[in-house]
Design goal:
With about 240 residues, the protein is mostly beta strands. It has one domain: Umud Fragment, subunit A (Ribbon), CATH 2.10.109.10. Helix content is about 10%, strand content about 35%. It is built from 1 helix and 17 strands.
């Protein structure tokens, strides 16, 4: 009696490989669409927290289901908290931007002499010092770094002294919306722009978790990356 298992044919091996590859592709697509996505920082609007050339991992599952090529989530089940750094699809032009949540629905926001005032209380800040090469894309002698504290979350912002003349009247944030600002206050296209204003939560794609790669793209070398900023690798986004 011959109890030897029949030998697998080439066609069967091909089908098994296709199923394996197809499963891996579907899993990768699921992770990218629903769970996590990579995002590259382009420009100085979040300095010194995030620098031009940083690549961050974004958690997409926290707020809703955001499908590729769409400008709003098809389903929303969560909302960012004050102080979170989020990726938003801009209402002004449909481009993805990274900003910090300063206020949520029901809050009031006012800017007086460059000072953010939330719910009638100035957001505490203290001077750290001048902007430094390596922290700012284009530092100058008028740029200063400050530390702000927003509901227990500490983070750094930067702006030139001329921004201290900036004013905006009191604005109440509608329910289901957030008010966003870049940490580099005088180089940020955010909710102070009337074309953006308070942003619907449905346009929030996810929250930035950590930097997985950071490249000084003004330099040359290290293949495609430019000069790597090793101290920023795997740093949490605060």
């Amino acid at each position: 009696m011959n109890d030897k298992a029949p030998e697998e044919t080439s066609w069967q091996r091909f089908k098994a490989n296709v199923r394996t590859i197809g499963g891996a592709v579907l899993l990768a697509a699921f992770i990218r669409i629903v769970l996590f996505e990579a995002f590259e920082i382009d420009g100085p609007s979040m300095e010194p927290t995030l620098q031009h050339g940083d690549r961050v991992v974004v958690a997409k599952m926290l707020y809703g289901l955001f499908l590729p090529t769409m400008h709003e989530a098809v389903e929303v089940w969560g909302s960012p908290e004050v102080g979170d750094v989020v990726i938003v699809n801009s209402p002004a032009d449909g481009v993805d931007i990274v900003k910090r949540v300063i206020a949520v629905g029901g809050d009031t926001i006012e800017i007086r002499n460059g000072q953010l005032i939330r719910n009638g209380e100035p957001i505490p800040r203290r001077l750290i010092g001048p902007c430094e090469e390596g922290q700012q894309k284009e530092p100058n002698e008028r740029c200063r770094v400050y530390e702000e504290v927003l509901e227990g979350k500490r983070y750094r912002v930067s702006f030139e002294e001329s921004w201290l003349d900036f004013d905006r009247g009191e604005l109440r944030i509608p329910e289901g919306h957030i008010y966003i600002r870049g940490d580099h206050r005088d180089h940020s296209n955010d909710s102070t722009n009337p074309l953006i204003g308070p942003v619907p939560v449905s346009r929030v794609k996810g929250r930035a978790l950590f930097i997985y790669l950071s490249c000084d793209e003004r330099a040359e070398g290290f293949f495609f990356c430019g000069r790597p900023r090793w101290d920023r690798f795997f740093a949490a986004v605060e």
